[in-house]
Write a structure and sequence with these properties.
With 161 residues, this protein is an alpha/beta fold. Helices cover 38% and strands 21% of the residues. It has a five-stranded parallel β-sheet.
Amino acid sequence: MGGRSAREGRLKVRVASIGKDRSGLFQPAVEEYAARLSHYTQFSLVELPEGRGEKSKAQQTEAEALLKLANDRDWLVALDERGKSLSTQEFARFIAQAQGAAKDLLFVIGGDEGLSPALVEGARLTLSLSKMTLPHRLARVVLVEQIYRAFTVLKGEPYHK
């Protein structure tokens, strides 16, 4: 039978990213939106270490670590500037589709070298937050805020600033 049982709980949303915010500028904003999201979903953040070595080796190491987090219930969403741009409404519909399909969402943000092409190709959705290149720490803030905004849209609630 499709759907989630009451025991399974709500949609789980995870944001996995490579590297840490050494500046301290972005972490407070991420934590604020993560706290707000707890009202709508089981939300978690995962930070993984940066891969070492030349670009393809670093990307491969990071991709392996990111993919270890995925399971059969997850829809993998890779963030990449060459991905699909969605409006807030379209993004909210994507989240609703995952929820309706009894899937969880695993968003992955690469490190300084970006995500490996193989990981991007295997994703359910490759999402672009902007055509501009964003620092991955800033991309995480924008993504978490947009996930929060999408849930307010789905619940028909006004956006709380």
